[in-house]
From TrEMBL:
It comes from Paenibacillus antibioticophila. InterPro entries: GGCT-like_sf. SUPFAM superfamilies: Gamma-glutamyl cyclotransferase-like (SSF110857). It comes from the Bacteria. This is Gamma-glutamylcyclotransferase.
Amino acid sequence: MSSIFYAAYGININTVEMKRKFNAFLIGKGFLEGFDLEFRGVPSIKASPGKRVPVAIWQLSTKSEIKLDYDEFKNIGDFKKEYHEIKVETLTGEANRRNLNCNQVTASVYILNEFKPLAMLSLSDYNILFQAYQKQHEFNVAILVRAAQEANKQYEKRKYEQMTEIMKYGFNEEESEIVYNALITKWIISGMPENYPSNS
């Protein structure tokens, strides 16, 4: 087994899918210090002194790492790949049996480039994260709730600003809501335009 370590904070904390898709070996769980979890349509993290993000720590083969790079869109620019020191909180029994006794590892972390605005996850993705937090790793679900609240707050702010802009063209509030939803549907189908408002 290669000693390539990967720290997952998003959907890839799901143990069943990681083992199925990447034949990954869970060595334990820990924390990435100095970062906070956020949602930009997908889970991501941002530098935030004093905060920390819970992670599942995986060991991968070189072949699996290449597949993971592809799955995380590293090669088309959505994510950047960094290496960080991860504090190990708990090792799995199998890790101990393999003599992987450590309190810190250097692991790859995929971070979304910040060209996407804060936006809530799909319900299915949020449920996967919530179940993995609660049942697989016993992480603090308040971290997920806080990220969801912030994403929703930014979404409502953008919606208000855009509907206000639409109303300048003579639409009333109800008509503006219809136009806004039609634009959102069009953007989802065709892809977000380059000038889609960001969280700046």
